[in-house]
Amino acid sequence: MTGLEKILSQIENESNDRCREITENANKKAEEIIGKAQADAQEFISVRKAQADKKAELIIQSAESSAVLTAKRTVLKEKLGIIDDTLARSLEVIKALPKKEYFEILKELVIKNARPGEGELRLSSEDTNKLPVNFIDSVNNSLKKSKIKLGKSTDIDSGFILVYGDIDVNCSFDAIAASKRDEIRDMLNNLLFN
């Protein structure tokens, strides 16, 4: 091997060594970059997963709360429906009582709601037609500081209206039920659901 061949061989070997060194350094640098990118990506994924898990948990809690609230509202609505149906049926039962019992209830209501002085008892036309002959006398005998007389029929379903001049005391069963609805609902709720 000549001197020139030795120099060329040495340059080629140095060049190959330098290329290997550059390639190894580039590979190490690439591995470092890839490792850092993977670590950054893993951290990003972990943070995003934690955020997504927290958001999902909040959504689930909100949905559960909403479902519980909706269920409670539905139960309450159904309970009120049952109570209102029971109340309506109770009024129907009162209206369907035999004549004697029905007018005994009316008599007790007149006595309870009568005011001092002379009043006028107004019944529905149906009740006026069914009125027992001695009903007004029986009521007046039970009253102490007041007296009633039978007035003209009025447009109510059942019960009566007591009229004292400009004052009307509405004792129709529908009006009584409406004025006592909350109290009756509470009572029926306790009886039916507790």
Structure characterization notes:
The protein is an alpha+beta fold. The chain has two domains: 1-96; 98-193, hypothetical protein PF0899 fold, CATH 3.30.2320.30. The protein has six helices and four strands. It has a four-stranded mixed beta sheet. α1 packs across α6 (181-193) and α2 (99-113) runs parallel beside α4. It is rod-shaped. 10% of the residues are buried.
Q: What secondary-structure arrangement, pairings included, does this model have?
A:
Layout: H1 3-95, H2 99-113, E1 117-123, H3 125-130, H4 135-142, E2 146-150, E3 160-164, E4 167-170, H5 173-179, H6 181-193
Parallel strand pairs: 1-2
Antiparallel strand pairs: 1-3, 3-4
Helix pairs in contact: 1-6, 2-4
Shape: rod-shaped
Number of domains: 2
SSE series? HHEHHEEEHH
Biggest sheet overview: 4 strands, mixed
Give the integer mean of the pLDDT values.
85
How far apart lie the N and C ends?
A: 113 Å
Strand order of the largest sheet: 2-1-3-4
Q: Which class best fits the helix and strand makeup?
A: alpha+beta
Extended strand count = 4
Q: Low-confidence runs (pLDDT<50, min 5 residues)?
A: none
Strand content: 5-15%
